[in-house]
Amino acid sequence: MLFICTWVNPLSRFVFIGPRSIGKSTAGKVLSKKLKIEYFDFDAYVEKELKGIDEHIEKNGVESYRVEEEKILKQFVSELPERCVISVGGGTIASQFKSLNEININILKSLGNIIYLSPSENKEEATKILFEREQKRNGNKKYSEIIKLFELRKPIYEKLFDLKIEVKNKSPSEIVDILLIKD
Fold this sequence. Notes:
By secondary structure, the protein is of the alpha/beta class. The chain has helices spanning 24-35, 42-50, 53-60, 62-78, 90-93, 98-111, 123-136, 143-160, 172-179; strands at residues 2-4, 13-17, 38-41, 84-87, 112-118, 163-166, 180-182.
């Protein structure tokens, strides 16, 4: 039998946040399977709603994308079941548009348990981990971009979480096991 850690509200939702390529979606899917509740990927939802994030940004700009993303987040949240697991892209709460960040942060905090997947406390190790994971997923971010994004977004992640899990070399199952207590 599995029990949820005492720090969380087991009747609430679980929201994974963190930098790109850290494993939010993968850990979210593992947790939802173990708890037998639904999993939702907000980035995939936005991609579907906008019929392509990159195309929308290319055509309309980043600010337009973030404004649309905030509207879509409100719609997305209204459709969620009472218990579920959600992963959210890093820019949803930590973009260059601070007023939209605050709106999105408040929406996500109202959902339930915020779980921050952190690569490492050590800056050099963190950026190395993120770059290696970006390469594994055939991502298009350069090392310098990863460092810049992580340094900009980390303070926001650090203020927001209910539980922080240092990922380092942990598998998705090991990450989820931190959330669960086995009987």
